[in-house]
Specification:
Radius of gyration: 19 Å
Distance between the termini: 34 Å
CATH architecture of the largest domain: 3-Layer(aba) Sandwich
Order of helices and strands: HEHEHEHHEHHHHEEHHE
Largest sheet: 4 strands, parallel
Structural class: alpha/beta
CATH topology of the largest domain: Rossmann fold
CATH class of the largest domain: Alpha Beta
Strand order of the largest sheet: 3-2-1-4
Number of strands: 7
Helix content: 40-55%
CATH superfamily of the largest domain: HUPs
Strand content: 5-15%
């Protein structure tokens, strides 16, 4: 029987068995659905020998840190917040296509530094099977630090993750993906605290004003905002174009556009050439 034909119950048991075999586990916990499922599974499998680690930095969207605290409390897992300093690293702020590698390297370096006090055997992340089909330089950082991916090892994809979250009554089972704010900045445009704050405020405004759960404000060169929303909302935004433009310009954007192709997860990677950086 292949992993594709396993039932969700079988995958759940396999995930728990993998985590039990790890011993004492630290989970890189962002409060997204993937890492939340891993944190819940770690708590079930390892009990007090598990801990969730959340990184706080300017690239974290408003409300995400509070969500992590609340979810960890609900799960019942020990929780520790660390301050990461990727914005102090030029290899990160210069925003080449390997930016995520440097971000995850900073995260795992910080976790490694406190591992003796955490008293854990293994660090794990929330990568799932579907993550293997995209350009994800952060996965190389995980390999460099011997971080394990129990969802991948258990053959669990994104749909499985959401089903497990629903079965475990986790309130974020249908939460849209929420990558870091820096991922909205076009490659080659410097990542700064001011730019990620501008993006954060712009997305919060659009979500609140138009009731859109999943969208992106992409920060292109020359302070251009490229708004991606599901195509069903395009006409609604077009009707309010003047108000949207006015608000985003107040936040510091100089030009404001609505992308007619609509929301596309990972659309910034469309410009990456085949000549990718060597991350080994």
């Amino acid at each position: 029987m292949t992993s594709d034909t396993l039932t969700i119950e079988s995958k759940e048991q396999q995930l728990l068995a993998i985590l039990t075999a790890y011993g004492r586990v630290a989970v890189a916990f962002s409060a997204g659905v993937d890492s939340t499922v891993v944190a819940k599974a770690a708590q079930i499998a390892c009990g007090d020998d598990s801990v969730a680690i959340t990184a706080n930095s300017p690239s974290l969207a408003t409300g995400e840190l509070e969500a992590a605290v609340s979810l960890a409390k609900q799960i019942g897992i020990r929780h520790q917040i660390i301050e990461t300093e990727e914005f102090e690293t030029e290899s990160y702020t210069q925003n080449a296509s390997d930016r995520c590698f440097h971000c995850k390297t900073e995260l795992y370096d910080q976790i490694d530094a406190i591992r003796p006090s955490l008293n854990v055997d293994v660090v794990v992340n929330g990568a799932n099977v579907d993550d293997q089909g995209d350009y994800r330089p952060g996965m190389q950082a995980a390999r460099n630090h011997e971080v394990r991916s129990p969802l991948i090892e258990a053959g669990i994809n994104k749909a499985d993750v959401r089903e497990l979250a629903r079965r475990w009554n986790l309130p974020i089972w249908d939460k849209p993906a929420s990558p870091c704010l820096s991922s909205r900045i076009a490659y080659g445009v410097e990542v700064t605290p001011e730019r990620v704050a501008r993006i954060d405020q712009a997305e919060a405004y659009l979500k609140t004003e138009f009731g859109i759960r999943e969208l992106r404000v992409r920060h292109e060169a020359n302070n251009l905002a490229r708004i991606e929303v599901p195509t069903a909302y395009l006409s609604k935004l077009a009707e309010s174009a003047a108000a949207i433009s006015r608000r985003l310009k107040e936040l510091g954007f100089q030009y404001v556009t609505i992308d007619l192709e609509g929301f596309r997860s990972g659309s910034m990677n469309e410009v990456i050439t085949l000549e990718l950086p060597d991350l080994s």
